TrEMBL record:
Domain named EngA-type G: residues: 3-163
Organism taxonomic ancestry: Bacteria, Pseudomonadati, Pseudomonadota, Alphaproteobacteria, Hyphomicrobiales
Its job: GTPase that plays an essential role in the late steps of ribosome biogenesis.
Binding site for GTP 1: 9-16, 56-60, 119-122
Protein name: GTPase Der
Quaternary organization: Associates with the 50S ribosomal subunit.
Family (UniProt): Belongs to the TRAFAC class TrmE-Era-EngA-EngB-Septin-like GTPase superfamily. EngA (Der) GTPase family.
Length: 163
């Protein structure tokens, strides 16, 4: 049976960038505008010697009259239910926002193993955000830079530790 991993978190933290990197193809659409990925994407991905199915979440595929929060919630809940592990991503440069705390509650309710990842962790601007992430209650965040490919061995270790 194959392993399934869900990439969850509020818009614009870099989920699709990490998805693209681990899938190795430009399947997910990446854009500067928050929440621009239009569909849930899933594809075979690889991290070190670990092969798995990776689910990217975005929240814009449903009815236009729903709120972004509602669409994100529905899609996140579905992805967590379908996955063995959730990778919860926050933005180390921005720090923890009320939206991150909202997602933290959703993800906790999902009851699946969680790996907390603080993305955009390249450079000094990320240090305080990394510390703040601890307050979410998922332990210490794994610092990565999806864009620059930094921290992937640490992410591998954290994912393997949940198996
Ligand atoms: P999503 O909404 O969570 O899927 O986020 P995206 O993957 O679409 O990325 C949102 C923005 O963050 C884009 O402008 C990305 O280029 C940028 N981004 C993603 N990863 C990194 C990173 O590691 N460092 C920095 N500085 N920017 C990043
Ligand atoms: Mg996206």
């Amino acid at each position: 049976m194959s392993l399934t991993v869900a990439l969850v978190g509020r818009p614009n933290v870099g989920k699709s960038t990490l998805f693209n990197r681990l899938v190795g193809q430009k399947i997910a659409l990446v854009d500067d505008r928050p929440g621009v990925t239009r569909d849930r994407r899933e594809a075979p991905a690889k991290l070190g010697d670990l092969d798995f199915i990776l689910i990217d979440t975005a929240g814009l595929e449903d009815a236009a009259d729903e709120t972004l929060q509602g669409r994100m919630r529905a899609q996140t809940e579905r992805a967590i239910a379908d996955a063995d592990i959730s990778v919860f991503m926050v933005d180390a440069r921005v720090g923890i926002t009320p939206d991150d705390e909202h997602f933290a509650r959703l993800i906790r309710q999902g009851g699946k193993p969680v790996v907390l990842v603080a993305n955009k962790a390249e450079g000094r601007a990320a240090e305080s955000g990394l510390l703040e992430a601890y307050s979410l209650g998922f332990g210490e965040a794994v610092a990565v830079s999806a864009e620059h490919g930094v921290g992937l061995p640490d992410l591998y270790e954290a994912v393997v530790a949940t198996l």
